[in-house]
């Protein structure tokens, strides 16, 4: 597909989707009217710049189904946003959406030379459920043999990799690192594995981590970018050249915008990824602010793709914490602690890596009023917080009571999140 | 191959086509669906230069053609088979066909035209049998094929078909659609098929656009369009949920 054809397709699809949401989604009709925008006058992709943004907050306010552009009986799959709790959001897919999702993922996997001869193991935990679904459908469309697992034990996973002759492993970066660490400490010889590539999805990772996984597991590591709200996995992905992410621009109109001025950035500058879905039927989104940061790569990729090419995901715009694929906001933790202790207390979340595995610890400095002499009373409260945290986020977060003086300070204020990963 | 960029068309003061963007690739069969009065025929007429384009561009290859007169567009390879066939009933079949090559005609090229005629007869042998017959004596389906054959005489690169299934017996419709598909496959013609008979059109098309009150509200692979419940309800005259209530 040439650049010019791509622009034409984008224009056609943008016009259609803008008119569709104006007609079908009251939220957009009110929003467009408020900005006196008439989608019938939409002419070229640049016109989109005058359109308002959609945020995660809009999805929350319209929870559960108010952003859907089709009657619910046409929706065949509904995914609650696991992990990202607080006020929840919901995404839905029509039959065509599921087909498109599979196509997109198949395209990503085909670009990496995955064929029906391959054995693809897909292992994600709860927080990355949506990614697992999408990639699995793509791999099955190609005809590869898919092994979906929900194992958290790396020893067992290594066993499967070896015994099933898995050629491709698709998982989160932390899990791949954990697996590599486990392999180093085991008797297994990495050269006996059939594994050729590892595809990472769900969390950002560094080049050093990529190198570590590649050298230990003797594989090539590729990156796939997923946004659950937008579609799922394969919004963008790396090609074999591994020089950055290619956005699938025939299905998503992508803008990289300066978070402060909200104007487009020049190649090389860091900006926020803003996505408009072009083909999604159930939940089309106009200028959705993902909060993920990246920068446009100035040089075209050797693979010759006309699609927008960016650096890997460089970080988050907000202070959302990403831990083993589960996203949470510091405010959620604060609210939860307050509910149990009934007062404001000092707290701090520590994040670090131990042998490649992400670790988390919530430190709480109890104030006089809740400090109890009875050890068992204090222990009960600690247990209660841990339990609530687990129910809320779906991952175990250990809690420790400490002296306020031992919390890490930044200037005068206590930091809520100390990230040493 | 053919590109429309933000085309606006008015008839009198009525805004009929609103910012139409559409493309037809080389050797692609694209169908344009829509209810009565959606603007399908208006779109074809503007493509041929029978209606003026108020805003926007029509590009053929890379050449803007929206200012060219109709006959120039035909010479470039843009040929329309109009709604209701538009054949000349008092003329014979062969005369009708020769008129199709009118823009190509010159004394030195008459052998070339003869050759085209033979080619067309080869494609549709029954026309050869009836070449001396008056066109008005043919059946509806045959007249439609004659209209398509006449268009082929102009050596089109893009064939525009306006409701070829209209007023034709259902069993013949199938045949005509097969011919259209054949033309695309054997001659590498690009085809824009405007239809109300969405079900048959989607079966042979590569891609489809759905036009509603002058706006394109859906674009996609024919298969996806056929699966889209909204399109099904509006243009395929069926609602799966009502057909098979849960």
Which structural traits does this protein have?
heterodimer, A: 421 residues, alpha/beta, GMP Synthetase, Chain A, domain 3, 2 domains, 8-stranded mixed beta sheet, 4-stranded antiparallel beta sheet, 10 helices, 31% helix, globular, B: 246 residues, Rossmann fold, 11 helices, 26% strand
What does this structure look like?
The complex is a heterodimer of chains A (421) and B (246). By secondary structure, chain A is an alpha/beta fold. Helices cover 31% and strands 26% of the residues of chain A. Chain A has helices at 3-24, 26-34, 56-61, 95-111, 129-142, 154-163, 173-184, 207-217, 330-341, 375-393; strands at 75-80, 90-94, 119-123, 145-149, 168-171, 197-201, 220-227, 232-238, 245-247, 252-257, 270-277, 288-295, 309-310, 315-316, 321-323, 326-328, 346-354, 357-365, 399-401, 409-410, 413-414, 417-419. In chain A, the strands form six sheets. Chain A has an eight-stranded mixed beta sheet. A four-stranded antiparallel beta sheet of chain A has the order 10-11-12-14. A four-stranded mixed beta sheet of chain A has the order 19-18-17-22. In chain A, helix 8 links the parallel strand 6 and strand 7. Chain A is globular, with a radius of gyration of 23 Å. Chain B is α/β, with parallel strands linked by helices. Chain B has a six-stranded mixed beta sheet, sandwiched between helices. In chain B, strands 2-1-4-5 form a four-stranded antiparallel beta sheet, covered by helices on one side. In chain B, strand 9 and strand 10 form a beta hairpin. Classes of the chains: A alpha/beta (421), B alpha/beta (246). The interface between A and B is medium-sized, with 27 and 23 residues.
